[in-house]
Recover the amino acids of this structure.
């Protein structure tokens, strides 16, 4: 999703804007719900390492507010390897869960990418933890 018009500092997007939607966003949400909500020992152990509490699945949802997604892309660019070469705002998958935002680059979310990184932020866009895969 690239900006198509810049007027008075407001960015208008073609397509869905900075918020990833559709089946890949749905897959991202399933994955985030598992990380944040699952009671299996792997997920609960990871949450302990990340320093976050479990969040009930019903309280984990996709973000479709363009301002929040734009802010998420700015934070992701500062804190994640795959976002380092991107100029915000760019497409991201964002899930909100109580006082957390979970963000992944739109290009890698919901698919089997060679390298991906998910960053967990607090409500002030401070990085809490990240997880990912590939090289």
């Amino acid at each position: 999703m690239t900006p198509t018009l810049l007027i008075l500092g407001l960015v208008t997007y073609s397509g869905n804007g900075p918020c990833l939607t559709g089946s890949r966003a749905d897959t991202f949400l399933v994955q985030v719900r598992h990380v944040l909500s699952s009671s299996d020992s792997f997920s609960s152990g990871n949450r302990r390492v990340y320093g976050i509490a479990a969040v009930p699945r019903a309280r984990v949802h996709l973000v479709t507010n363009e301002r929040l997604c734009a802010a998420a892309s700015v934070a992701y660019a500062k804190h994640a390897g795959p976002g380092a070469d991107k100029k915000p705002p760019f497409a991201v998958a964002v899930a909100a869960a109580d006082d957390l935002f979970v963000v992944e680059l739109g290009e890698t979310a919901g698919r089997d990418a060679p390298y991906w990184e998910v960053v967990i932020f607090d409500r002030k866009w401070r990085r809490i933890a990240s997880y990912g895969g590939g090289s």
